[in-house]
Amino acid sequence: MAANISSGNFQSYDPGEGIRIFQGLDPDIVLIQELNYQQNTDSQLEAFVEDSFGAGFSFVEEEKSSGQLQNGVISRYPILQSGVWDDADMTNREFVWAQIDVPGEPHLWVVSVHFKASSGSEARRTGQATQLAAYINANVPATDYLVIGGDFNAQNRNETFLARLAPVVDVTAPWPVDKNGGGNTNAGRSKPYDWVMVEPDLGALEVPTVLGGRSYENGVVFDSRVYTPLSAVAPVRQGDSGVQGMQHMAVMRTFELSEDPYQAWLGENFASLDPAAEASVWGALADPDEDGLVNFLEYAFVRDPNMPVLTPPIVAVALAGENVEVTFPMRDGAGLTYALEGATDLSRFSFVSGGAVSEGELMGLVKMRSVTLAESALRFFRVRVRE
Questions:
Q1: Domain ranges of the chain
Q2: For the structural domain made of 316-386, what CATH number should be given?
Q3: What is the pLDDT of residues 85-95, one digit of tens each?
């Protein structure tokens, strides 16, 4: 999702309309603009993300000193690394990027942008696009997926900046629309300000975006004033997209990144999937070999669900001077995400970000991931696995 859906007089999410839209649409990844909430302290932004999207989401933002119109990335999936590329043309927002561990083998790179506004700034937007394409060519592996999204302030679908981005993402039709076929995204629905642009390999995996039983073949422009039925996107209210200061519509596209191999694994490891035996034998939370790992985790960490294995530990922690190195196995091609969480004691674990991430060579179905944390106070670690 691309979302510059702040509102009110201060370009913030404090009034709550944007939060309701996030809650109703339930996106997996958001490229957000004007990321302002209360005083923008770390704890306040964490509360905003949890309230808008739920527990377990991670996020990155610009340095707060970079200006009032902060860009950011919010993700259901673990953020492996992130940073800010300097937009030499702007002083109050930068290009925010993140590499995300989405289901499947290629990682996903996303860039959240907010180009210069106004009809007289086409040349500046072209310059911004030129910078951005250069950053992408220098930093994003060709084997990974790429999304550029956000508020481009495009006045039409033929602006010159699009030609500068065309070598790295697809900028051509078809585009997302609302239920009436309208694709423009500014408050007056007359200009295509907001885009979700993807490179061709990811574009080939696009599937219709479905909201409340209604299918949008090429993605949706969400406008609460025209969307029906609103009951399908509760708690959104009919006027949320039209309140004072809501200058943009959210844009969302959907991509199917992997098949679900878990069912095949169940068939390989259990002679029968009799519903009567689900809770005790083959269910995701069953532990038939009584080794402390439920079936879903046996699958995730490439263990045999019918043979108890008590050692070695799944998560290995080693100290090297002031550094902490945490290593754990992952199942290749499982369509799962693995998020490392840490704590200074056993009372509160949180998502670990900022470490140096490396992955070893594939050995059968196993790939070992190592996260090195410099001068970390964390001493307890666990891995959260989710589909």
A1: 2-255, 262-300, 316-386
A2: 2.60.40.10
A3: 999 999 889 99
